Amino acid sequence: MRLNTKVFSSVSTKSLVFGIVIVFACAAFVFTGFGSLNPGNLSGLDPNTIAKVGSEKIDLQQFSTAMSAQGLSNSTPPEQKKAVAQQIINQLIQQKILNEQAKKIGWTVDQSEIASLIKNVPIFQNPQTQQFDIQLLKQYISQQQMTESYFYSYLKQQIEIQKIHNLIYMPIVLPGKLLEVENQIKNSEFKLQYAVIAPSDSFLKKKISEASHKYVEDKTNLANLTTLFENTKNQYQQKAQVKPLSILISYKTAQRAQGDALKRTKDEATALAKQIETKLKSGADFSKLATEMNDDVIAKSNKGDIGFVDDTRIDKESMKTLLTLNAAKPLSHIIETPFGLRLFKYVDTKPAVSKKFDDVKYQLAEQLVSPQVQSSIENELQKNINEVIAAKNISNLNKIMSENNITWQYLNKPYKVSESYIVELGMTEELAANIFSLKNPGDTVPKILSFGAKKAIIKLVSKSSAHSLTPELVQTIKNQILSSTTQEFVKSVQQSLTKKYEKDGSIKINTALLN
Question: For the PpiC domain, which residue ranges apply (predicted)?
């Protein structure tokens, strides 16, 4: 069936956001689905049919179009491709269930509805005239490798689905009292103080030190400590390191030569290095010259800085020279290396490290006992604070906070229940559920709240009630409530329909094609 272009030229030009959604729906399927669908009976499906829902078919072209939009490549693991395919099938089956329901209740979609939809999609409108252009439509269909008949059929099905959604989204009567309560919940503002519950660093360090000494003194722990030492020995055996600034002047026969160095002879490189050396001895800025004249790409981008090095990270001749440099004698002479000619300027030194087991056994013990000690102390502290705030024992609360160097801080801005994140703390789910327990300034939420990585107690400073309801605010709140409740209702209806179709054996999937 070809699209009737006369119909397109006759419909009005109102703006329909839904049109944009529909046109691009075939290239962007949401990976939600509604659980795993029962394949049902595979008999009766022709080779070009992926699945069938009642009388509605999902053909191979429809499935391939959706799959190609996912950006999968030949290197994508087969398991991932299979999972994506199943998600797309779930989504397409959900659409076909709604199409089937549309048929059962007698929905009809005529050409004028489809034409009105297409005509108001921006990509089908001429930029100069702002009018529908049939050539742009045909160009789009061609680019998507569709036939006009397929495109027409697809839009028809999507309009059917939208009509079913409109039926499900029935209006709900909201009493005025509910709107007032919702307004107070959503729009009241709270100025708050918070105190992050964590033991002080000094107290924690002391307890970990005590526990590590006790751990070392117990001979039964010697094997654990020895194993940890052997596995981490490298960090306790370190050669002397020097941190210099570096300038490399390379030439075409040097190792790893690149860029301008490939045009330079060794004699030309030597002459250039001597010019730089002369400038440095005259007080020129090493970092500036390292940025301008370097053939070492990394050093050039870091103003000559190559970090701390030892003889495992730099050639022997360079390291031998670096070990002679210090703050009193920072500049090197020109050094000949396999990579070219180098000049260095001393920045810092790390002495050699060679520690034995006895030198680090307490440090090793700290690594082993620290997580358990910290967890135990934090749990005990939280238990004690929960007990005193539940009992409203302010004096004991202040004592515990003082002992652990815990202080009250102010939130930078008032808090509203509609907010899901507080900059100073983190996610706010628990706070929203407990905030209305605070009645008067100074009241504290009667338990420690979790904000993700942080745990804190909350105190009320002041509260500002929401503004009185205006017609505009009433409509906003209504929209918020209706959006939330109807989305849940639609999801529930779709899940029920899916279960019914599965139970009736109305969903059939050709798994052979999916593999």
Answer: 239-348
